[in-house]
Amino acid sequence: MRLRYCPLEEVESDAALFIDKMQQTEAALLIGIDDEHIHQLAAEMNKPCVLINARDRRMRLPSVSPHHQLIGEFSARYLFEQGHRQILSLHCLRRYTMEQRLQGVRDAWHAMNLRFDSRQHLLTLNSFSSNEAAERLSEYLRHCPDALRPTAILASGDYIAAGAVTALEQAGLRVPQDISVMSMDGFNLAAIHDIPLTSVQVPRDELGAAAVRMLQEMRLNPGTPTGSLLLNGRLVVRESGAAHSR
Q1: Distance between the two ends of the chain, CA-based, in angstroms?
Q2: Are 15 and 40 in contact (CB under 8 A)?
Q3: Are 184 and 155 in contact (CB under 8 A)?
Q4: pLDDT value of residue 139
Q5: 39 and 110: one domain?
Q6: Can you tell me the distance from the alpha carbon of 176 to that of 192, in angstroms, rounded to the nearest whole number?
Q7: Which InterPro entries does this entry report, sorted A to Z (predicted)?
Q8: Contact 235, 74 (CB under 8 A)
Q9: What was the pLDDT predicted at 134?
């Protein structure tokens, strides 16, 4: 199977570019594309097409994605099991996938019979930038009473987690002795950060392999039913997290 690369935006994609590339190929993988017009074009071209980390709301195209909601729930549950109760979540909600992770975090709080208060337990960001995360968390810590200070930070990505570590260090707080930091991503910076990050890894390689298998099945059996495959994450414990003793 020969691959071609076609850069598209998540939304408001270049439809003409997509059509041109699709006319030159036999199948397509659409990675993180939320543009419903592109989904419609892909379905109408009658060529095998699989979405990766995206969904077709009209259920015409198959997809494979991380189980974002379960990843969020598992991550928060892990921190609860480590004895943490004051957990601050740092989330960029730019895509619905991040909203699903946040819903999973809320589910974990509910399962613990604890109230999730967005004003106290959530900082929403406009991007995945480490600089923005550091600035927002620094501001939060300046106004947070010591009694309500979190014992753990749960970040929706590695760069956000890295920014959180920077803000904590600037505030004179140690990671993980004073505050633990955990990421839901686990690839870009987790292993090589100055303080290696405990994380739930998104199965990126497995997503690609599963999507290619879907394409092959669609080519061999054109009538294959469409559906969505959700893959679990994997916990990797590193140095940024510690159990909390109350």
Answers
A1: 56
A2: no
A3: yes
A4: 96
A5: no
A6: 16
A7: LacI/GalR-like_sensor, Peripla_BP_I
A8: yes
A9: 97
Instruction: Report the alpha-carbon distance of residue 156 to residue 127 in Å, rounded.
Output: 11
Residues of the chain with pLDDT under 50: none
Residue 113 shares a structural domain with residue 185: yes
Domain holding 217, by residue range, is 15-66+202-232
- Both 88 and 159 in a single domain? yes
192: buried, middle or exposed (CB in 10 Å: 19+, 13-18, 0-12)? exposed
Name residues whose C-beta falls within 8 Å of residue 23's C-beta, 6 or more positions apart in sequence: none
**Domain shared by 147 and 28, yes or no:** no
**CATH at residue 220:** 3.40.50.2300
Planar angle of CA 108, 111, 112, nearest 5 degrees = 90
pLDDT reported for residue 132? 97
Residues belonging to the chain? 246
CA nearest 125: which of 69, 163, 177, 152? 163
Segment 211-245, tens digit of pLDDT: 999 999 998 998 888 899 999 999 999 999 999 87
Encoded amino acid at 8, one letter: L
Same domain, residue pair 82 and 192:
yes
Position 65: which residue type?
Answer: S
pLDDT at 193: 62
Rounded CA-CA distance 4/10 in Å is 18
Structure tokens at 178: 């004073």
Chain-centroid distance of CA 82 in Å reads 22
